[in-house]
Structures are given as C-alpha cells and as structure tokens.
C-alpha cells in the first residue's frame, strides 16, 4: 500500500483543485445562469442550443485526438507541441470559414432565420480556442489544476458580469453569445499569461504522423460521441419549438452542474495519473478500482438526490415560467448518473493505448442509441420518449464499457458490478425517501427543499455507516487533511499579514 502513496497524493491534489474549479467556477456560472434565466426567455436559450452541436463537432475535428495523445505520452517535445498547435489553428480557420458560408442554410434547416448572424459571430470561439489548447494540455500533463482553476474562475466571473449587463440592457440572445465568446477569449489570454509556453516555427511530419496514428481513432469516436451527445438539441430544435428546446436546454445545464462537471473533473485528473502507471498492472487495477468506487459513492446520491428535489428546486431558482423543465430534469439526472463510470472505463482503454476498442465501443453504443431514438420518434412519444432512450442507452452502455475495459485490465464485469451494487442500492433508497418526504412536507418551496436535503444527507450517511461502506471512511480521510491544510494556510497568511 505504501507504494501507491505518491500516486494517491498526486491524485488527491489534482482532485482537490479540480473540484475547487467545479465549486468556484461552475458555482458562479450556475448563479449567472439563474439570473439570465430570469431575465431572458426560453427561446433565447433554445436558439443558442441549436448551434451547440456544430461548435462541439467542430471542436472535436480541430483537436483530432491530439490532446489525448499528448497527455498520454510521458515525454512530449517542443516539436510535438508546436506541430499540434499549428495544425489546430489551421483546422479552426478552415472550419470557421465553412460554418460562415453555411450559416444561412443552417438557419433555414432550423426554420430560424435569426440563427445565421448569431452563428457567424459565435463560431469565432473555434479560432480563439485553438490558441490555448497546447497551454491547457501542458497544465493537464502536470496535473496543475490549481492554475486552471484560477483561469476559469477569472474568465467565468468576467464573462458572466458582461452577459448580465447585456441582458439587463435588453440584448436578448446576444447576451448569451457575448458571454460565450468573452469567456473563451479571457481563458485563452490567461492561459498564455500563466503558462509561458510559446510555439516554435516548426512543423514536424514525424510527430504529426505518430500522434495522428493514435488520435485518428479517438477523432472518429470523439466525433460520434460529440454528435450523439448533442443530437437531442438538433432533433428537438428541428421537430419542436425553440421554447421547448429552451426548457430542455436549461434542464440539461442544471443537471450538468453536477453530472458533466464532476465527470470532467474526475476524467481529467485520473487520465494523466493512471497513464503514469500504465505499465504496472497491479497498481493500475488498485487505482482504477478505488476511483470507480469512490466516484460512485459521491456521484449516485448527488444525481438521485437532485431528481428527488426537482419539484421545489426548479421554480425556486429559475422561476415559475420554467416549470415545464422539471420532468425533463428528473429524467436527465437518471440518464446522467452513470456518466463518470462511463468516462473512467473509457479512460482505461486510452491509458492502455487501445483506441481501436475505444472506437468499437462508441460505434456499438451509438448504433443502439440510434435505434432507440428512431423507435421513440416512430411512437410519437415526444421529448420525454427521447430522454427515456438516453436512460436505457446509458445503463446498457455501462455493461458494454465495463466488458471492454475488463479486456485490458484484470477487473472483470462481475467484480465491478459487485463493487458498485451496495452504493447503488443505498442511493436509490435515499432518493426515494427524499422524494416522498417532499410530497408530505408542508410549507413553501424553500422550506421543503431545505428539509429534503437534510433528510437525504442524514439518511445516506447513516445507511452508509450501517452498511460499512469503505468509501465513507475514504472520503472522510480525504476531506479532513484538506480542511486542515486550508486552515493552516489561512492562519499562515493571517500571521504574515500581522
């Protein structure tokens, strides 16, 4: 056990700052989102969501899997970094030009003429982002999430304030456009200021071929994954009104405050750490298993708890005009509760260099989702049916991911399911009790929400302790030293000030 302490220390430090990024930056973004939701209309959010898939797919093409390739390599040279930098900028410029000349046709497809001028401006984020990709890769390789937290926090606050000013002045949907562009621009500028890396005037063909050999399969799987992650925005935007898409979009964003953000935090920390021990099978399995179980212990109760408190939560934070989002949000939380487990299993395939299996898994999962979506549209079950398709696909995908990850690491599917079962059962029980308590508790939304949260937390802690869930003690052992460290730094700063 003493052997894995350096890895544990590095992971804990990365997780601490990654979670600090989540709590600070995402927390601030969430507050800004709440205010914007009260100032703007659902259709404003719907219009932006229609363009999300285009920007997301373009970003995947620009990256071409090179980011993961650079992070995975133990020793990347200046030539490697410079080669990828120039390629990213070239691809970003080409894709911006394509989007620019296609913007009118895209507006016609969605039956929203207003989309064309918005898309021409919003797509500038592709070029802006290409300038900061390598700086971010270097920070990830060094597990330096402290610097990333500072950058994201500053950019999030500044762009949020700018968006709120624009919304108050009546800029409507352009407030959201300005927020997106200004945040990306500030992040890129700060990445250059905090990270002193500068590209050399070189483009190495050998570096390109080596990195593209690994990244090309990830590019295809990334494109498939990105397209399907955003396909609901296309379908809802094309088949339904921009208002309906707006309700769905804000339900997704509220879910993603916990779901995607925590998943990204875990994924970006564990990938470089596990990559560093990829050749030691025993250490890799121990680290992988620990991450899986601890993630489930934290994540499942959060997602099921959010679904349980949705009835008072959404009207309280967004206002009564967003009540339609409640059921969308509850189902999306169920669909998203497995996201970190998907990410961790797929991380193992990348760590072991099996981008071929990574691609195969993505093709199988997306084929299944396509069939489920077609059945949903055929049955005329509307947006609710589409979300149920995502739920079914998510649970089946977990079995697929664990099956293929077990091929490269000695951690069989049966053993993984056995490890996950106790926390899963307790989380479901907690969610059910929390939801039922909300139905019988008197009072306004704020009182009901507070009581539900307290009931859920108390039940989960007691049940975990009685069931002797080892992750409960693990989390406790992680949190206490971090709190002591923060308090020590606080007092040290105070002493110096005096």
From TrEMBL:
| Any Pfam family the entry gives | Polysacc_synt_3
What is the protein's major site of localization? membrane
Q: What lineage does the source organism belong to?
A: Bacteria, Bacillati, Bacillota, Bacilli, Bacillales
Q: Which organism is it from?
A: Peribacillus glennii
Q: Which InterPro entries match?
A: Poly_Biosynth_Transport (IPR050833)
Which cell locations does it reside in?
Cell membrane
Any one GO CC term of the record: plasma membrane
Membership in a protein family: Belongs to the polysaccharide synthase family.
Instruction: Show the stretches that span the lipid bilayer.
Output: 12-41, 47-71, 83-106, 118-139, 151-170, 176-194, 295-314, 326-345, 357-377, 383-400, 420-440, 446-463
**Annotated membrane topology:** Multi-pass membrane protein
Q: What is this protein called?
A: Lipopolysaccharide biosynthesis protein
Task: State the UniProt keywords alphabetically.
Answer: Cell membrane, Membrane, Transmembrane, Transmembrane helix
């Amino acid at each position: 056990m003493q052997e894995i302490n350096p890895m544990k220390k590095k992971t804990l430090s990365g997780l601490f700052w990654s979670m600090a990024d989540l709590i600070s930056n995402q927390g601030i973004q969430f507050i800004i989102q709440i205010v914007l939701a009260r100032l703007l209309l659902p259709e404003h959010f719907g219009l932006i969501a229609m363009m999300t898939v285009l920007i997301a797919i373009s970003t995947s093409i620009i990256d071409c899997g090179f980011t993961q390739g650079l992070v995975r390599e133990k020793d990347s040279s200046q030539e490697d970094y410079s080669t990828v930098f120039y390629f990213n900028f070239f691809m970003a410029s080409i894709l911006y030009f394509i989007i620019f000349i296609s913007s009118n046709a895209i507006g016609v497809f969605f039956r929203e003429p207003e989309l064309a001028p918005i898309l021409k401006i919003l797509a500038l984020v592709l070029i802006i982002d290409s300038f900061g990709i390598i700086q971010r890769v270097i920070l990830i390789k060094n597990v330096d999430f402290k610097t990333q937290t500072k950058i994201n926090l500053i950019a999030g606050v500044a762009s949020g304030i700018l968006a709120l000013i624009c919304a108050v002045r009546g800029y409507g949907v352009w407030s959201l456009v300005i927020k997106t562009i200004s945040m990306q621009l500030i992040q890129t500028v700060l990445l250059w200021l905090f990270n002193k890396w500068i590209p050399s005037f070189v483009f190495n063909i050998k570096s390109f071929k080596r990195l593209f050999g690994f990244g090309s399969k990830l590019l295809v799987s990334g494109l498939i994954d990105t397209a399907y992650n955003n396909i609901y925005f296309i379908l809802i935007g094309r088949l339904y009104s921009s208002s309906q898409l707006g309700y769905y979009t804000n339900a997704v964003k509220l879910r993603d405050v916990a779901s995607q953000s925590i998943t990204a935090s875990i994924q970006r920390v564990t990938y470089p750490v596990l990559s560093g021990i990829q050749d030691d099978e025993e250490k890799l399995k121990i680290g992988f298993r620990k991450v899986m179980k601890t993630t489930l212990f934290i994540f499942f109760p959060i997602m099921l708890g959010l679904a349980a408190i949705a009835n008072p939560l959404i009207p309280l934070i967004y206002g009564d005009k967003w009540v339609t989002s409640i059921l969308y949000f509850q189902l999306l939380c169920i669909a998203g509760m497995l996201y970190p487990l998907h990410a961790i299993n797929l991380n193992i395939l990348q760590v072991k260099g099996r981008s071929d299996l990574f691609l195969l898994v993505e093709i199988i999962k997306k084929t299944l989702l396509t069939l489920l979506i077609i059945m949903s549209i055929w049955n005329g079950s509307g947006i609710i049916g589409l979300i149920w398709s995502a739920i079914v696909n998510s649970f089946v995908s977990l079995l697929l991911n664990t099956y293929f990850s077990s091929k490269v690491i000695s951690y069989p599917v049966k053993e993984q399911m056995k490890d996950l079962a106790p926390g899963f059962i307790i989380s479901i029980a907690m969610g059910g009790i929390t939801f039922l308590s909300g139905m019988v508790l008197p009072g306004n939304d704020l009182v009901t929400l507070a009581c539900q949260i307290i009931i859920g937390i108390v039940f989960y802690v007691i049940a975990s302790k009685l069931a002797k869930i080892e992750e409960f003690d693990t989390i406790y052992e992680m949190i206490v030293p971090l709190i002591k460290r923060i308090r020590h730094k606080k007092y040290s700063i105070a002493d110096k000030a005096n």
